[in-house]
Amino acid sequence: MRATSAGRNWAGPWPKTPGRLLGTGLVRFYQLTLSGFIGNSCRHLPTCSEYAYEAIARHGLWNGGWMALFRVGRCGPGGTHGIDNVPETLGPRFVWWAPWRFAAFGRRCAHE
User: Fold this and answer.
1) Which pTM was predicted?
2) In terms of Cα–Cα distance, which of 97, 51, 48 is closest to 75?
């Protein structure tokens, strides 16, 4: 029987590549240090740092990092709010050489 994680970050399976370990390590470092000073004022569920951790773990440092950056941009005043989960898979239009397309996540029809 496998024990489930009681932590706040995504506990699903993901490849432990150097880029993903670096990215998730930086997010975890932020969570343990700076997050307490900034406060719990995220307008989304999961929080921006939890979203970044899962996006990097699932989709790699490059794609997940862009998804996290645009998510933090949506979290400011006048931005979106509500439940905004990381997609399990990326559509064919989300390629490494077009990072601006990741800004569509969190809006309607983002996964086409």
Assistant:
1) 0.85
2) 48
As averages over each run of 10 residues, the pLDDT of the chain (112 residues) reads: 63 91 94 82 85 94 94 80 88 88 68 40
d(CA 19, CA 17): 6
20: nearest Cα among 68, 90, 89: 68
Residues, the chain, total? 112
Q: Please tell me the predicted confidence (pLDDT) of residue 111.
A: 42
> How many CA atoms within 13 Å lie on the side-chain side of 16?
4
C-alpha–C-alpha distance, residues 44 and 49, integer Å: 11
Name 88's Cβ contacts closer than 8 Å, sequence gap at least 6.
58
Residue 107 has what pLDDT? 61
Q: How far apart are CA 8 and CA 57, in angstroms?
A: 14
Strand partners, 44: 82
Residue tagged 């699903």 (tokens):
12
